[in-house]
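Input/output pair, single chain:
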Amino acid sequence: MSIAELAATAKSASIKLAAVETQVKNNALAEIAGALKRRSDEIISANRQDLAAAEKNDLAAPLLKRLKFDQGKIAEVCAGIESLINLDDPVGKTLSATELDVGLELYKVSCPIGVIGVVFESRPDALVQISTLCLKSGNAVLLKGGSEAVKTNRILAEIIAQAGEKTGLPKGWIQLLETRQDVAEMLALDEYIDLIIPRGSNQFVRYIMDNTTIAVLGHAEGICHVYVDGDADLDMAVNIVVDSKCQYVAVCNAAETLLVDETIAATFLPRIKTALEQKSVELRGCEKTRAIIAAKPATEEDWSTEYLDYIISVKVVAGVDEAIEHINRYGSRHTDAIVTGSKEKPARFMDLVDSANVFWNCSTRFSDGYRYGLGAEVGISTNKIHARGPVGLEGLVIYKWKLLGSGQIVADYCGPNAKKFTHRKIKISDR
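Output:
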């Protein structure tokens, strides 16, 4: 089928999926988890083929790490699915209720967005997370993963589609795209697709935004910061910085820049240098940093670079206000953290840093839908409309207005003898 035909099929399926009962969706999720476990050998075999081809093509080490989908990764995605089953269905919830007049009641009710097109990086686990989140939220989905993962993505999409059909989901709710041309064609299909979620470089996200009339939700780069304040517990700060940078370097919520208060720089920088170098991290520092420790010179470009590698830029700042100014200038509005024993400074930091996720005394790596209890995520949004931060189930639904009347017409509410609206709020618990 052509991409337009795939999208049309997904659109038709989305209308039916919007009305599927919660138990049917949960049964489908359970069947998907079971099928992934049963067919794990096939999945791992396909992934090994992708890895071998990627190594032959000299794919960078961090990207190879993302691409790997072994038994441990399968166990992780299955645990995420089981967590998703236990979450409330976000569809069909009454968000507000208002009596406009006696016998005329208005309800704001959550509903699926419809058809979502997601273009994501070389992480097969992302395909599972995205598709199952879309399923639970009642959305059909068109998926385009990295070409490096083509064989892994094919078998995963096949397993998920078959499990869904087996448990009563409408055929065609999940579709897999494989080429850049497929993506280009998808961007023109605003009659079928309601939302595009791109995950990738700033240049790629900008390309998507500039070449479609479909609404776009997502983030470009993950330029995340950790600011170590003068009142920080330095042992805590070392642990948080190392985890933020090194726990998984090839992801968007890994720290790329370390900011250090000048009052503790002479004490803290040698300690963090030792800890980071034990993890093979290269340090690139400002002049003040290099006056204290040996580091490569940091350029202006470093402050706005997402390394996704064992590299971190380091800057000494004159307190929390300069840290905030630096983050708002160079950051990507993703995730930024402050480490301090003060109670006043983190409040200022979290109020003034213009990011989707702002943390106090914890790793930037916590910025994740699964860790937030959202049942994984389709991505992290730095947008300021609809959804922000990790986009889980609630970010994949919108709402509609339902008005229940008993014969009312607008003419009765106009003119000199117009009836008056009561506009009385109705307690949702009463309905």
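Residues 224-366 form a domain with the Aldehyde Dehydrogenase; Chain A, domain 2 fold (CATH 3.40.309.10). The chain has a mean pLDDT of 94.
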